[in-house]
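Suppose a colleague, Dr. K., hands you the sequence of a protein chain of 254 amino acids and asks what its three-dimensional shape might be. Before reaching for any lab equipment, you can write down a predicted structure in token form. Begin with the sequence itself:
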Amino acid sequence: MRLWLRLFLLAIYAVLVVATFFVGFELGQARITAICQPDLAASRERLRVTEKALAHAVTQMAALKQEGVVLDRSLQIERETVRSLQSQLKEVQDERLTLIKESKYLKRLIRDGGKGAVRVHDLRLTAAEGDRRYRYGFTVTQLVPGVGESSGRVVLSVDGEQDGKDVSVPLRDLPDADPKDLPMRFEFFQNYQGVFALPDGLEPRGVSVTIEPDGDGILRTSEAFPWVIIETGPPAGGEDSGRTSGTATGSRQP
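The predicted structure, expressed as tokens, is then:
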């Protein structure tokens, strides 16, 4: 057989092989598309539904977050309101207690024959420089008008526990006490200020202030205060002024 005939037949065979492969590929792709097309559409639909649900969830989360912020703020306002009401209630209770004490004093005055009575109030304790050192300040006031000058001395003591026993240590026995004595001489009221340190081993629970008058014209009275250290602000007492207006600090009283 001639060479050109062989080449011709070989070319025809190659064309048939390529055509068969192409037809098979197209048929296979069409079949795969026909099989996968429904699943692909379903997957796209599920993806769309999931994206919509996710967007809704994000919106709900944002709304819940905003609602949480509002609730937190409302709770904070309620707490502040409660604290303010509690503070006002304490002030009213303290004022009521003061009035009750003054009423008791006046009843005692009537019962004991019209003597004067001195009330101790506004005691404040603040930390001073040094280890276990404190500043104090308080005011004594004559409750009965027209009594005249009140004289005597004021005894301040720190009450607490030391070596397992209840003790009451007077000011003159406290370390670094300045002044050590608190003389009293006034017509209306008198302010006292000073400093002291706590002795080793003493665990304070309160402060007691006792009025020891000269003579029988004033009742001997005593007030007890809890041990509360005020972090800021000066102790009670105020500036000095003339004795006729009723004020003089204990550390400068002549």
